[in-house]
Design brief:
Layout (H helix, E strand, L loop, with lengths): L1 H5 L7 E14 L12 E13 L2 E15 L6 H6 L2 E16 L12 E20 L2 E24 L2 E12 L27 E13 L10
Length: about 220
């Protein structure tokens, strides 16, 4: 899909800038395993460069605290363990958003389309560990993640677009929750499944304002 879109010739483009508001949840070795279960407030900023009615490049910044408690899990083993953690996520993401249907921004008739988004994310978080069941912070760290977002959007006014989306991030770390600290000195404190990485999820709404040149989504001038 990236290769095909790369050969598309467009003569102009239009831009979007806006906000993301919603919630976040974590999926890993502590707490419940529900995939979509927002329990912390999340917010962010996003920019889109629309290259055609079907695709756009997207840059976003999102921030949220993530937390989980074993006491809210349906697993008897986790409930008996009784751990709780908090961490802070600050994420910068860049990738491609693809619309299932044409979403021509200079056609002001009401329209709606599902969309998907993916790319690459870099996020900051705290490396955690536990001492006697209490959370401790070792140091701050940054890692990569792969965002996988599914949403639906519509134009509510001439220059405003509202979207509803759910986006899971597969991270390149197994220690958002303190179960697998990278510090070799803390290796004896590792627990749970050490072969699967953690996830976090952002769910919410986006509101963007469109501006810039009127696009011409055509091959020839």
């Amino acid at each position: 899909m990236f290769l095909l879109i790369g050969f598309t010739n467009v003569n102009a483009q239009i831009h979007e800038i806006g906000l993301f508001l919603g919630g976040s949840n974590y999926i890993g070795d502590v707490g419940p395993t529900t995939y979509i279960n927002p329990n912390e407030f999340a917010f962010g900023l996003l920019y889109k460069w629309n290259k055609s009615p079907r695709h756009s490049w997207r840059l976003s910044y999102n921030q949220s605290r993530i937390s989980a408690s074993d006491f809210k899990s349906n697993s008897p083993g986790r409930t008996a363990r009784g751990l709780y953690f908090e961490n802070n996520i600050k994420e910068l993401s860049l990738g491609l958003e693809f619309n299932f249907f044409d979403f021509n921004l200079h056609d002001f008739m009401p329209k709606i389309t599902p969309y998907v988004y993916s790319g690459i994310s870099y996020f900051g978080y705290d490396e955690l560990f536990y001492i006697a069941g209490e959370q401790r912070t070792d140091y701050k760290h940054g890692e990569l993640a792969i965002p996988m977002v599914l949403g639906v959007k519509t134009n509510v006014f001439e220059s405003f677009i509202v979207g509803l989306e759910v986006g899971a991030r597969y991270t390149m770390t197994d220690n958002l929750d303190g179960s697998n600290p990278k510090n070799k000195i803390l290796a004896p404190l590792k627990f749970a499944d050490l072969n699967s990485n953690d996830w976090y999820v952002f769910s919410g709404i986006t509101l963007t304002y469109t501006f810039g040149n009127k696009p011409c989504y055509c091959i020839y001038k």
